[in-house]
Structures are given as C-alpha cells and as structure tokens.
C-alpha cells in the first residue's frame, strides 16, 4: 500500500525533500567528492558515464552471443558428422581423430575459453561429449538453440546502447508498477 502511495521513486527511496544547495557526489574522473549546484549539473556528469557503461555492456553481450552461436553450430556440425558416418570415432587412435577434425575445420578449443580450459587437450570439448548426445534429436536441439542465439544476437546488434537503457528503465518501471510493487517482492527484477 505504501509503495503505491509513494510510487516508484518513493519505493526506491529516491524521492525526498532536501535542499539543493548541499549536493555532493563522488566525481567519476577524479574520484574526489564534488559539490554540484543543481540536479541538472549532477545528471550532466552522470549521463555520459552511464552511456559509456551501456556501450561496454552491449559489446560484452554481443561477444558472448557470437561465441555461443559459434560453439552451438560447431557442436551440431560435429554430432551431425558423427551420426552421418563422415567422422568415425570408434576403433581409431585419438591422434587420427584429431587430425581428421583439424582437416574438417573444427576448432581445437571452444571460442572464449577460460583458463581452466588451457589444461585440456585439443578437441576435448567435442570428443568428451557423451554417447547419448550423438543423436538426431541432439542435433535438432543444438541447431534450435543456435537459431535462438543468432536471433538474440541480431536483435542486440540492431539495438543501440540508449535503447538498452530505455528498455531497462521500462522493465524496472513495469516491475514496480505491478500489483504489490516493491513491498510484495524481495527478489530483483529480471533484465
């Protein structure tokens, strides 16, 4: 009830009566406490920094989606090659299998690998798949996931950082305006 009465800003405790002659905040560049004359001057300092962070976030998410799409497509192609008989795994030495995978253009390591992957052998991300994953259903599932990730990637690439910001603000507003608002929920909104 209190959340509805106060609205979004009141629920977040972002709204209160205060004197604007005593506004201080940490400056983004110098990391020193700075005095601001008005809320507009404070926002003028904050907005470019926030915009820069949304550019970094967008680029990070695009990179992760590109890696995901590549890895899903590669796994689907590998499973397809094995199930169709193009790549035979049984009764062959590992070195022979590795050289064939290299010839067929498969990546030795997954893109965007982590430091713990450095200790793994080449093609472990493909050769360590369980036998139950070598099926037509798994190929279809991997391709479906790849298509979804590709769609997400193209949508994100077509979205500007400012549009991401507006979208996040809209989601936050909707989350708070739903019945019960902030007081009813203790979990964070999903972005």
Radius of gyration: 25 Å
Q: Number of DSSP helices?
A: 7
Q: Overall pLDDT, averaged?
A: 85
Q: Give the low-confidence spans.
A: none
The helix content, as a percent range, equals 55-70%
The description of the largest β-sheet is:
2 strands, antiparallel
User: How are helices and strands ordered from N to C?
Assistant: HEEHHHHHH
| Beta-strand segment tally | 2
- Structural class, by secondary structure, is mainly alpha
N-to-C CA distance: 25 Å
Q: In one word, what is the shape?
A: elongated
What percent strand?
under 5%
> If strands are numbered along the chain, what order do they take across the biggest sheet?
1-2
Please tell me about this protein's structure.
The protein is mainly alpha-helical. It contains 7 helices and 2 strands, in the order H-E-E-H-H-H-H-H-H. It has helices spanning 2-11, 39-83, 94-103, 124-127, 136-157, 161-177, 181-184; strands spanning 23-26, 33-36. It has a two-stranded antiparallel ribbon. Strand 1 and strand 2 form a beta hairpin. The longest helix is centred in the N-terminal third of the chain and has 45 residues, at 39-83. It is elongated and about 80 Å long.
Looking at this protein, list some descriptive labels.
191 residues; mainly alpha; two-stranded antiparallel ribbon
What topology emerges from the helices and strands here?
Blueprint: H1 2-11, E1 23-26, E2 33-36, H2 39-83, H3 94-103, H4 124-127, H5 136-157, H6 161-177, H7 181-184
Antiparallel strand pairs: 1-2
Helix pairs in contact: 2-5, 2-6
